[in-house]
Specification:
This protein is α/β, with parallel strands linked by helices and about 300 residues long. It has helices at about 5-10, 20-30, 75-85, 100-105, 120-135, 205-220, 240-265, 270, 290-305; strands at about 40, 45-50, 55-60, 65-70, 90-95, 115-120, 145-150, 150-155, 160-165, 175-180, 185, 190-195, 225-230, 230, 240. It has one domain: Metallo-beta-lactamase, Chain A. The strands form three sheets. A seven-stranded mixed sheet has the order 1-2-3-4-5-6-7, sandwiched between helices.
């Protein structure tokens, strides 16, 4: 989603946000045009977002160090780095990957020699290395130098940063990154806002548990929490509230129930994948519907045959 659409359509849900979230959106609306093909914008005085191509990047700027969440691709990461360097000459203390996919970790290599630590869940590192070896491009990767299994927390300046892993979802290595003091959570690809998601079963994805992860997030964090999303459909926001998480959980639940009903009705997988919509989920439109449909069908059949 481009910056212009982000700004225009954010206004549609502006009134439903908390005062704190409205202040964040107001900051994002401050410049009505973009001279560059990317958006680099501060959400607070220290935390911002970068979008160009691939998953949304979040970042923290503090005099004690910089923190970057995800890296897109090598070329777009260079743009991100250039913008950061205009703001601060502090070192990138942590480059965090929400998961291993190339549009979130492919730009890691641009941070070689710049980032003190590259951090991800242990499964994310395994997946990144496995895919790189299979694609014969391990030399073009900057793999995590630090990993964790369930929880991780550190302070960078005045900000407390916590990472959480709650089991397989979009992949088997998805992290939620919580900037605790400012109460902003980067969801990575645990959140596709009104966009049909990629469900990477080759990396251990599980839709049923993905739903649980989303519900756990809405319970763990509070009503004033602002969320950064990995991807959004054209016309929808890259940041939002718990209500967006609940709607995405409902969407995933509807996908599973739809697949289950079609299996019970004796439909073939080929016939099921011809569907162009999901019952009662009209906000999710456009390309990519076969991705969740395929994953839901395969997940249910695997369970049925086990």
């Amino acid at each position: 989603m481009n910056r212009r659409s982000f700004i225009q359509n954010s206004a549609l849900t502006f009134g439903a946000l908390s005062i704190a979230q409205q202040n964040i959106f107001s900051a994002l609306f401050s410049k009505p045009g973009a001279a560059a093909p990317w958006m680099f914008h501060m959400m607070t005085d220290k935390i911002g977002v970068f979008t160009e191509r691939g998953g949304t990047i979040g970042f923290l700027i503090d005099k004690k160090g910089l923190v970057v969440v995800d890296s897109q691709f090598p070329d777009t990461a260079q743009h991100m780095i250039s913008e950061l360097q205009k703001k601060s000459d502090a070192q990138v203390k942590y480059l965090i990957n929400t998961h291993h996919h190339g549009d979130h970790s492919g730009g890691n290599i641009a941070f070689k020699g710049l980032a003190k630590h590259v951090l991800a869940h242990e499964n994310s590192k395994k997946n990144q290395k496995r895919v790189a070896i299979n694609n014969n491009n391990l030399d073009k990767q900057l793999l995590p130098t630090k990993t964790y299994s369930e929880e991780w927390q550190k302070h960078v300046g005045d900000e407390s940063i916590a990472l959480h892993y709650w089991g397989p979802a979009h992949t088997d290595g998805d992290s939620l990154i919580h900037f605790e003091n400012t109460n902003i959570v980067h969801m990575g690809d645990l959140m596709f806002n009104r966009r049909h998601p990629y469900v990477d079963r080759s990396a251990g994805a599980n839709i049923k548990n993905w739903i649980k992860v989303l519900h756990k997030a809405t319970r763990r964090f509070d009503s004033s929490t602002t969320y950064i999303f990995g991807h959004s459909a054209e016309g929808y926001n890259i940041v939002g509230s718990a209500d967006d998480l609940k709607k995405f959980a409902d969407y995933l639940d509807a996908v599973l129930k739809f697949a289950e009903a079609e299996i019970k009705a004796g439909k073939t997988k080929e016939a099921f994948l011809k569907n162009t919509s999901i019952p009662n989920q009209g906000e999710w439109k456009g390309d990519g519907i076969t991705r969740p449909l395929t994953a839901a069908w395969d997940e249910l059949m695997e369970k049925q045959n086990s």
